[in-house]
Write a structure and sequence with these properties.
By secondary structure, the chain is mostly helical. It has 14 helices and eight strands. The strands form four sheets. The chain has a two-stranded parallel sheet with strand order 1-2. Strand 5 and strand 6 form a beta hairpin.
Length: about 350
């Protein structure tokens, strides 16, 4: 940071405002000023953290605490003042780092607690949560991975519509070919051939890839094995189970797994509005330069076709009654039509 400041001074750059600290208060102030067109410089102490840098337990003191005289230079700073003991953060993000890149909008029962004053606070705070999601791109409370949904719009479907959102390891427009699904599963190739239009074909490719990955994950197989070779999954499973199922019968099992997982989400109260891609991941506003210049993702159109193709209820996000009956998972998906 000091090197960057010296560079800025040497170039005689002029800033309208200098914000000290990049935590909840500083970052919001800097955003608001920048949105107004001001030149803003943010000063902070510490380094930049990515998801992989956060400790898995608070007992890992070497990865948690900032106590320089003990050789600890990580996130948490414990400041004992006369009348207050403060836990704050050091690094890009300040105190927000203590949340480990998690950003959740509370569930309805939180807003309904008696501690809140009357006034429909969920609706009143919704615009501010929308701004926060734009500042810190996440979905379902988890940070988005590096795979850009503007480059391969199949990732947009995966991040928003799958039972576990924001996963880049489920499917994309390219996965069906990359994993040789269309080659090993005749039904997958037929799914793509039976539709017209670029988007419809990509949605079918995505769905075929998702069915396959549900099967791979449920079988305990390794994704990297699937990525580096054309795995004979049906042969493996037949040898292990003593079954005699075809590749396409196994692909159908993958479809059942996907629907069961979505049915579980509906039963447990997971709502589709809790898993919305932030505007930045949709190209809103569009970039003005670079390889993704001007590219946007029409996620509403993609989700609509994805749900219709799978036979999912657009209100609950779970399988419809017809799909439940077709797949024979009625008992597991009983609440999907509520």
């Amino acid at each position: 940071m000091g090197h960057q400041i010296r560079q800025a001074i040497s170039k005689s750059e002029i800033f309208d405002y200098i914000i000290i600290g990049s935590g909840f208060g500083g970052s919001v102030s800097a955003l608001r000023l920048a949105e107004k067109g001001y030149r803003v410089l943010v000063l902070g102490k510490g380094k930049r953290y990515e998801s992989k840098d956060f400790p898995h337990t608070n007992w890992n003191l070497r990865k948690n605490l900032w106590i320089p005289h003990l050789g600890l230079y990580e996130i948490w700073v414990l400041s004992l003042l006369r009348h207050v003991f403060i836990l704050h953060g050091t690094g890009v993000g300040g105190g927000s780092l203590n949340y480990c890149n998690q950003l959740h909008m509370p569930s309805d029962d939180v807003f309904e607690k008696k501690e809140w004053r009357d006034g429909n606070w969920k609706s009143r705070l919704a615009p501010f949560y929308k701004v926060a999601r734009g500042m810190s791109p996440h979905i379902g409370g988890q940070e988005l991975p590096m795979h850009d949904s503007r480059l391969d719009q199949g990732f947009a479907i995966s991040y928003q519509c799958e039972p576990t959102p924001r996963r880049h390891t489920i499917s994309s427009n390219a996965y069906t070919t990359l994993l040789a699904v269309d080659k090993n599963f005749p039904g997958a190739a037929l799914m793509v051939r039976n539709v017209t239009g670029r988007q419809s074909k990509n949605v079918q490719r995505y769905i075929a890839g998702s069915f396959y990955m549900q099967l791979v994950n449920c079988s305990g197989l390794c994704l990297f094995g699937a990525l580096t070779s054309s795995l004979p999954v049906a042969e493996y499973l037949n040898a292990l189970t003593g079954w005699d199922l075809s590749n396409d019968e196994y692909l159908k099992i993958g479809e059942r797994i996907l629907n069961l997982r979505k049915a579980f989400n509906v039963r447990e109260g997971v709502k589709i509005e809790q898993c919305k891609l932030p505007d930045r991941a949709l190209g809103l506003p569009p970039l003005s330069k670079g390889p993704l210049k001007g590219i946007t993702v029409d996620i509403d159109r993609l989700q609509k076709e994805f749900f219709e193709t799978l036979g999912w209820n657009p209100l609950t996000g779970g399988p419809t009654k017809e799909k439940i009956d077709e797949l024979g998972i009625k008992m597991s998906a009983a609440k999907c039509e509520d």
